[in-house]
Amino acid sequence: MANELEFEKPILELQTKIADLKEYNEKSDVDLTKEIVKLEIRLGKLEDAIYGNMSAWDKFQVARHPERPTTLDYIPLIFDQFMELHGDRYFGDDAAIVAGIATFHGTPVTVIGHQRGKDTKDNLHRNFGMPHPEGFRKALRLMKQANKFGRPIICFIDTKGAYPGRAAEERGQSEAIARNLYEMSDMTVPIISVVIGEGGSGGALALGVGNQIYMLENAVYSVISPEGAAAILWKDASLAKQAAESMKITAADLFDLGITDGIIPEIRGGAHRNVEEQAALISTVIRKGLNAMSALSGEQLANQRYEKFKKIGVYEEL
């Protein structure tokens, strides 16, 4: 089966067996209903056992699944009247960042998110979801516009990281990310960030300075990829699985550490199994978040954001 993950193989094999039995049952005079029911019960227990005990590396693989929903998959299911806007007014447009205005249950909002490609051609166009400086500057331009007109900002995070190429560095990659962090910290409108896939390094953080930060159950959020961490720590990228376990990159880890505000449940097997249902779960969380912040003034929103990030990484000297 295309795009299958290693830990899912027992499930996929059993699903194939059930499908074959159902097809045979329809075409023959032999009644295999009881056998099919037994196998479906067994499948349910197997899914509970495997999906209920996924390792950090398993979740990382699901977060990078090629069929995992992207920002553009979620936008039409969550928002109405989305109008995409382009360009940073300095250099050009960056297809790795999607940004525009929309309505959410009748409320005007600004929506910004990383965008991966769906195939090789699209990935080249989107630069595999890794933004150049103009992508971050486009995002900031839309954020400033939202701040001016009092529109809440909704960010979807899904990137391996900011593009590390020479051209990006020449155009001020680090400065562009730092500028986003600085400007977002002081905005007077609600900002909700949702990690929908892989949240990698500064490229993710550039859209992650929110009043509320949520992660999908199988999303990951880290300062570096497990492969990169393994290469640096142990000079061996093949130890990525071991690195993933020690880096605390899962939604549960980040919530326990107080970095995120909540975990959005995923459809069993991953968000790609039912995009519409997953979008509904995300929409519910966004709506609750905006309602909770509706009574706060601009100054209170900025202060709450400041205090939230001030608490992250606090340590005690023994």
Automatic annotation (TrEMBL):
Provide the E.C. number(s) assigned to this enzyme: 2.1.3.15
**Subcellular localization:** Cytoplasm
Q: Principal localization?
A: cytoplasm
Q: Which GO terms describe its molecular function?
A: acetyl-CoA carboxylase activity; ATP binding; carboxyl- or carbamoyltransferase activity
Can you tell which superkingdom this protein's organism belongs to? Answer: Bacteria
Task: Supply the alphabetized keyword list.
Answer: ATP-binding, Cytoplasm, Fatty acid biosynthesis, Fatty acid metabolism, Ligase, Lipid biosynthesis, Lipid metabolism, Nucleotide-binding, Transferase
Q: Would the keyword Cytoplasm be found if you checked this record's keyword annotation?
A: yes
Question: Which SUPFAM superfamilies does this chain map to?
Answer: ClpP/crotonase (SSF52096)
Q: Which residue windows are transmembrane per the record?
A: none
The similarity annotation says: Belongs to the AccA family.
Role description: Component of the acetyl coenzyme A carboxylase (ACC) complex. First, biotin carboxylase catalyzes the carboxylation of biotin on its carrier protein (BCCP) and then the CO(2) group is transferred by the carboxyltransferase to acetyl-CoA to form malonyl-CoA.
- State what protein this is by name: Acetyl-coenzyme A carboxylase carboxyl transferase subunit alpha
Source species: Listeria booriae
Query: Source organism lineage?
Result: Bacteria, Bacillati, Bacillota, Bacilli, Bacillales
Q: Which gene encodes it?
A: accA
